From TrEMBL, chain A:
UniProt keyword Transport present: yes
Main subcellular location of this protein, as a coarse class: membrane
GO molecular function: ATP binding; proton-transporting ATP synthase activity, rotational mechanism
The gene coding this protein: atpG
Chain segments annotated as transmembrane: none
Function text: Produces ATP from ADP in the presence of a proton gradient across the membrane. The gamma chain is believed to be important in regulating ATPase activity and the flow of protons through the CF(0) complex.
Protein name, as recorded: ATP synthase gamma chain
Quaternary structure and partners: F-type ATPases have 2 components, CF(1) - the catalytic core - and CF(0) - the membrane proton channel. CF(1) has five subunits: alpha(3), beta(3), gamma(1), delta(1), epsilon(1). CF(0) has three main subunits: a, b and c.
Presence of the UniProt keyword Transport in the record: yes
Location within or outside the cell: Cell membrane; Membrane
InterPro entries: ATP_synth_F1_ATPase_gsu, ATP_synth_F1_gsu, ATP_synth_F1_gsu_CS
Family according to the record: Belongs to the ATPase gamma chain family.
Sorted UniProt keywords: ATP synthesis, Cell membrane, CF(1), Hydrogen ion transport, Ion transport, Membrane, Transport
GO biological process: proton motive force-driven plasma membrane ATP synthesis
TrEMBL record, chain B:
Species: Pontixanthobacter aquaemixtae
Membrane topology: Peripheral membrane protein
Alphabetical list of HAMAP family matching this protein: ATP_synth_epsil_bac (MF_00530)
Location in or out of the cell: Cell membrane; Endomembrane system
GO CC annotations on file: endomembrane system; plasma membrane; proton-transporting ATP synthase complex
Name recorded for this polypeptide: ATP synthase epsilon chain
Gene behind the chain: atpC
Length: 293, 85
């Protein structure tokens, strides 16, 4: 049986933990709103780029298509680009991502492919390294900036395209969470290189058949556009991870705050009981002493 | 009788308005876009986009970096990587 003082200290420490989790929850809620706004603001660019891509890619196909669109002709070596958060305290978000990435890696390995990882963010590093020693290629550090933005996305994309051109891998997949709500962030795996052929250009703003003039030429434009498309995809993933991190953090901290409250209630009851027991014992001692006289 | 002009960056939709004419720094030379321009697409170099709100008025200049210009039925869309305002 813990002494009264120990119980009191315990209650105090749980209370201060609760304060921290509550503060973190509120910070996450505020940041979530910002992250969602940023994700929404990025949508027009991605949509327009996708529609331009669709219109162009349907025109340029066959042998003269750039390597980024057509692929290297083999699919032996796969690169998994896994986007994780830099900070913890966000529930099962990172472990879900790592699990999804591991499952994909095992599936590819079972099909006889070589798998390598390219990690973005700090948190996935340790578990993936443990599961797949020797397969971790590069990791991109985003911890020195507060909100990873387009510049980070651009440098990641540049590095990927460079590795691709140098023939380091054939296919790249992007693993990132899709923010559905504060409660649900599903890990998603998308192929980013070679750029998957977009759906038919029927829904593009230009009516099919309209003669579009290209300057300098269709292929040149497409060649410029593809790396940019990869950048946009990665930028989208960075925005999703930011929103997901805050959402998951909010939910996790809400649970933690509630658990701390329950624990405090339980400890307080225990504390009161021991206090009463102590008083009763004292009374009995006094009465027994008085009777003996 | 106006040209719908949109300037979009990855971070946000910078402009979406009806203007008279826009001069875009294309990779192979500057070009002006008026209403009813034929469908056209070009890469752009780093430079200044001039937006003429009215005919003969003074242009508003927006510095942009890297991207594309697309002219379609619904006007001119400039996708830029960076905009300095």
């Amino acid at each position: 049986m813990a002494s009264l003082k120990e119980l009191k200290d315990r209650i105090g420490s749980v209370k201060s933990t609760q304060k921290i989790t509550k503060a973190k929850q509120m910070v996450a809620a505020a940041k979530l709103r910002k992250a969602q706004a940023a994700a929404e603001a990025a949508r027009p660019y991605a949509e327009r780029l996708a529609s331009v891509m669709a219109a162009l890619a349907s025109k340029v196909s066959g042998d003269d298509a750039p390597k980024l669109l057509a692929g290297t002709g083999s699919d032996k070596r796969h690169l998994l680009v896994v986007v994780n958060t830099d900070k913890g305290l966000c529930g099962g978000l990172n472990s879900n991502l790592v699990r999804a990435a591991s499952a994909k890696a095992q599936e590819l390995a079972a099909a006889g492919k070589d798998v390598e990882f390219y990690l973005v963010g700090k948190k996935g590093r340790a578990p993936l390294k443990r599961n797949f020693p020797g397969q971790i290629g590069t990791h991109f550090d985003t911890s020195h900036v507060r909100d990873p933005g387009f510049e980070e996305a651009a440098s990641i994309a540049d590095e990927l395209v460079e590795m691709y051109e140098a023939g380091k891998f054939d296919v790249a997949h992007l693993v990132y969470p899709t923010f559905k709500s504060a409660l649900a962030q599903d890990p998603t795996i998308d192929q980013i290189i070679p750029v998957p052929a977009p759906e038919s250009a029927a829904d593009s703003p230009n009516t099919p058949g309209a003669v579009v003039e290209y300057e300098p030429g269709e292929e040149e434009i497409l060649e410029e556009l593809l790396p940019r498309y990869v950048k946009t995809q990665i930028f989208g993933a960075l925005l999703e991870i930011a929103a997901s991190e805050q959402g998951a953090s909010m939910t996790a901290m809400d649970n933690a705050t509630r658990n701390a409250g329950d624990l405090i209630n339980k400890l307080t009851i225990q504390y009161n009981r021991s206090r009463q027991a102590a008083i009763t014992t004292e009374l009995i001692e006094i009465i027994a002493g008085a009777e003996a006289l | 009788m106006a040209l719908h002009f949109e300037l979009v960056t990855p971070a946000k939709l910078v402009r979406s308005e009806d203007v008279h004419m826009v001069v875009v720094p294309g990779a192979e030379g500057e070009f002006g876009v008026l209403e009813g321009h034929a469908p056209f697409m070009s890469t752009i170099r780093d430079g200044v986009v001039q937006v003429f709100k009215t005919e003969g008025g003074a242009p508003e200049e927006i510095a942009i970096e890297g991207g594309f210009a697309e002219v379609g039925d619904n006007g001119l869309t400039v996708l830029a990587e960076k905009v300095e305002s």
